[in-house]
């Protein structure tokens, strides 16, 4: 169900100017019934000026009157042709002022760990512009030396589901174009749910990399002992039988 614009201010006006039940107001404004009760008690939305839904073409006075007489009736938002499609408006995502300074770091993270993403996808995820993304890709950004790659999900700039969707679209596009991908790139193109569901891969310490076939087993030690020459072979010792003959003489 569509909610009215300025829902909380509309609820304030309905609480102050009608005898509608808390549930009726909550259902119409998309709020919890206890939140509407808090508005009536003055604990919620203190100082918020009421927004008249009748004057702003969201409700009719007749519908409010009918709902006041029937507590089971539900208010319905008045159709407004000008508001249709507003939720599908395209453009950069709005980023709060407190988080805008973190956008370059998140762009650097996306460029580094998901180079398959198009500039338009990155712009939509974190709410930035293509020139900014291009300057970070080319490392010509004025603050590139002080930037650190940070996950935009951790910064609250986008949801993990949105990032996964963008990555999957990029993977499908690359597959459709027949572009080859490395194993590392394939792993990056997995969604969070897919990667968490996979078995952990055994990792070998980098200090012994390349020694995968080396064995410390018993067979290897036995082969090593057999390969060693006998100590007697280093000396031309006389036969014990000859020594006995000399002693007899």
UniProtKB/TrEMBL annotation:
It comes from Celeribacter baekdonensis B30. InterPro entries: TrcR. Residues 81-100, 193-249 are annotated as: Disordered. This is Putative cytoplasmic protein.
